[in-house]
């Protein structure tokens, strides 16, 4: 916007209103500049909020942060110290492993149930649309709130899940208080949260499959399962890729849900890379160590994104 | 709903009985999926249960849980509302022009920008918070409404750009050229022609960015060090840390914090449908 104040712009302005043929190259440049004016603010915003943190995290991982850093402004470079400390701590390996288990468990659960429900809702029946809309609710409620509601449901002594299971003679399961059960419990809750998203996207994909394809398959005498496996699934592959990639991106960085359910406990048994980054930076105020774990998290996402993009490109050929 | 049962599905239905059987299964699935939300409401209505088992249905309409939730969390709900509305304004102000530019101007590099926008999905929020915290300290944005609005807007901007761009691509070029022939500048064309035409996608993007900001917990947790700016997500989280026994009012606060999601579900459903058909007709 400040460009208008500059001399060349002022003359150019006079030229356009007078409709005299302007210098075409300069006019084009001016137009391009004005057009970028629409896009540039958003690009700048995204560079600040997504690009800058990526760079800054790499730098921070080589700096020594202490609780007093934010008063003194001093965070001296300390080489590979943060990296050595993080990798030397057993907690990192534990969090990494738990992140992998959590991500795979969540994705498998969400996807399988979501696909089942998508297939179910792909039939025509009364109230289909209403039911499909309402099933989205768990996905739209703030994740921390869902976590807190489940914390009450999963309570060992007074939670409704154990009361219900008690009817079948299943004893009081320490869902959130046992180091063996807690990660499974967090996965189960995350599956519940993720089902609607998987269902909606997969349902959209199923709707795109032309009805004639099914008709042709049934004319050929294919069974329902056979049709699903060798006709529907291959046609659904691009949508499946999208849903799994988006699911992966949002699952691997999990933080809200774990904090609301277990705060990473008991005994770090639900600590993930996301919560470890948080703990390092915002609880211990060791932002250098937090940055190291954050970088690993980005690296995992990036590797996955590259695989995804490559798979997409091969598909296009 | 039950009263319309015999009449509604009449046209072109071959086996109505079996189809209502499917509906019954659908209702059962929905009941299982929504059970935790039912339990949230149920627990909220039994504030006396405390740390005991909660009965399957509330005995009466005991709203004392809600009244203490309003006392405890009312201010935080208002903070959430203010921050989320601010985030929506920021989000749309940045993303609507960008979506238009990327959709209608043949800019060199537009593809790269769209690709970059998609890639932002990959950056974990906690990594952003980790780096932005020190930047926020330097800029004096920690513990400020504006700082949290900006951070929350970042949750919606990429999605809003992608969504609105896909609708604005469908605006016929002749419409825009006609406006420009009439003497409207680029900005006026955008405000008076393009925005009204993209109303549905604008509303959809706005609703989603509201929901993202309303649901945000991580930025609220990391970019605030005092109680000055505390949205309801953070309020509830800290409350259960301090008052383990008072589940009634915690659940009542949870119910209140889930209301926008429920309202927007109904509204967004309509706008998403309108937006999709509006986009595909062209």
UniProtKB/TrEMBL annotation, chain A:
Tell me the PANTHER family matching this sequence. BLR7065 PROTEIN (PTHR43005), SPERMIDINE_PUTRESCINE TRANSPORT SYSTEM PERMEASE PROTEIN (PTHR43005:SF1)
> Which keywords accompany this UniProt record?
Cell membrane, Membrane, Transmembrane, Transmembrane helix, Transport
Q: How does it sit in the membrane?
A: Multi-pass membrane protein
In Swiss-Prot or TrEMBL terms, this protein is called: Sugar ABC transporter permease
Q: Which InterPro entries match?
A: MetI-like, MetI-like_sf
Single biological process term from Gene Ontology: transmembrane transport
**Segments passing through the bilayer:** 36-55, 95-121, 133-153, 181-203, 235-255, 287-309
> According to its UniProt record, where is this protein mainly located?
membrane
Protein's UniProt keywords contain Lipid biosynthesis: no
Q: Which CDD domains match?
A: TM_PBP2
Q: Cellular component terms, GO, for this chain's entry?
A: plasma membrane
Similarity comment: family membership: Belongs to the binding-protein-dependent transport system permease family.
Q: Where in the cell is it found?
A: Cell membrane
From what organism does this protein derive? Streptomyces adustus
The keyword Lipoprotein appears for this protein:
no
Residue intervals of the ABC transmembrane type-1 domain: 96-308
Automatic annotation (TrEMBL), chain B:
Q: Does the keyword Hydrolase apply?
A: no
Q: Name one GO cellular component term.
A: plasma membrane
A biological process (GO) of this protein is:
transmembrane transport
The transmembrane residues are: 20-41, 77-100, 112-133, 145-164, 202-223, 247-268
Compartmental location: Cell membrane
Arranged from A to Z, the UniProt key words for this protein are: Cell membrane, Membrane, Transmembrane, Transmembrane helix, Transport
Domain ABC transmembrane type-1, chain residue ranges per copy: 77-268
* Top-rank taxon, per record: Bacteria
Q: How does it sit in the membrane?
A: Multi-pass membrane protein
User: Into which family does the record put it?
Assistant: Belongs to the binding-protein-dependent transport system permease family.
The identity of this protein, by name, is Carbohydrate ABC transporter permease
């Amino acid at each position: 916007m400040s460009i208008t104040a500059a001399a060349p712009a002022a003359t150019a302005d006079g030229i356009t209103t007078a409709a005299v043929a302007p210098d075409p190259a300069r006019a084009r440049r001016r137009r391009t500049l004005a057009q970028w004016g629409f896009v540039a603010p958003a690009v700048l915003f995204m560079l600040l909020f997504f690009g800058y943190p990526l760079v800054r995290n790499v730098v921070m991982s080589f700096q020594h942060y202490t609780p007093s850093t934010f008063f003194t402004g001093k965070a001296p470079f300390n080489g590979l110290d943060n990296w050595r400390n993080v990798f030397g701590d057993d907690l990192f390996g534990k969090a990494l492993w738990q992140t992998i288990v959590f991500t795979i468990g969540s994705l498998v659960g969400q996807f399988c149930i979501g696909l089942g429900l998508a297939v179910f809702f792909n039939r025509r029946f009364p109230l289909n649309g209403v039911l499909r809309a309402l099933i989205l609710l768990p996905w739209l409620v703030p994740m921390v709130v869902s976590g807190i509601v489940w914390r009450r449901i999963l309570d060992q002594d007074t939670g409704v899940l154990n009361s219900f299971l008690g009817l079948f003679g299943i004893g009081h399961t320490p869902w959130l208080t046992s180091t063996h059960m807690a990660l499974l419990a967090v996965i189960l809750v995350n599956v519940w949260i993720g089902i609607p998203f998987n269902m909606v996207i997969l349902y959209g994909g199923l709707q795109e499959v032309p009805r004639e394809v099914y008709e042709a398959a049934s004319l050929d005498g294919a069974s329902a399962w056979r049709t699903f496996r060798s006709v529907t699934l291959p046609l659904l592959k691009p949508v499946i890729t999208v849903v799994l990639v988006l699911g992966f991106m949002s699952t691997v960085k999990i933080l809200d849900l774990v904090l609301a359910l277990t705060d990473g406990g008991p005994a770090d048994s639900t600590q993930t890379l996301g919560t470890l980054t948080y703990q390092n930076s915002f609880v211990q105020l060791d932002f250098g160590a937090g940055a190291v774990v954050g970088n690993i998290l980005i690296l995992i996402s990036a590797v996955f994104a590259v695989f995804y993009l490559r798979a997409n490109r091969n598909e296009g050929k | 709903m039950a009263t319309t049962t015999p009449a509604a599905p009449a046209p072109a239905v071959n086996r109505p009985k079996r189809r209502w059987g499917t509906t019954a299964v659908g209702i059962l699935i929905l009941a299982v999926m929504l059970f935790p939300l039912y339990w949230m409401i149920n627990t909220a209505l039994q504030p006396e249960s405390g740390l005991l088992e909660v009965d399957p249905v509330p005995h009466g309409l005991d709203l004392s849980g809600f009244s203490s939730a309003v006392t405890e969390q009312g201010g935080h709900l208002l903070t959430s509302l203010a921050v989320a509305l601010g985030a929506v304004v920021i989000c749309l102000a940045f993303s609507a022009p960008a979506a238009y530019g990327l959709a209608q101007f043949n800019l060199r590099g537009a593809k790269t920008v769209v690709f970059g926008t998609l890639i932002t999905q990959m950056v974990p929020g906690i990594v952003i918070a980790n780096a932005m915290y020190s930047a926020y300290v330097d800029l004096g944005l920690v513990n400020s409404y504006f700082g949290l609005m900006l951070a929350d807007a970042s949750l919606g901007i990429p999605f809003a750009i992608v969504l609105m761009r896909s609708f604005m691509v469908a605006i016929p070029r002749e419409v825009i050229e006609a406006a420009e022939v009439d003497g409207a500048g680029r900005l006026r064309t955008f405000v008076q022609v393009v925005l009204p035409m993209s109303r549905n996608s604008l509303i959809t993007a706005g609703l989603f960015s509201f929901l993202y900001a309303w649901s945000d917990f991580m930025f609220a947790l990391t970019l605030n060090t005092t109680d000055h700016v505390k949205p309801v997500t953070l309020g509830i989280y800290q409350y259960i840390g301090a008052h383990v026994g008072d589940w009634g009012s915690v659940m009542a606060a949870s119910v209140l914090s889930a209301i926008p999601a429920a309202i927007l579900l109904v509204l967004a459903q309509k706008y998403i449908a309108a937006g999709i058909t509006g986009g595909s007709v062209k």
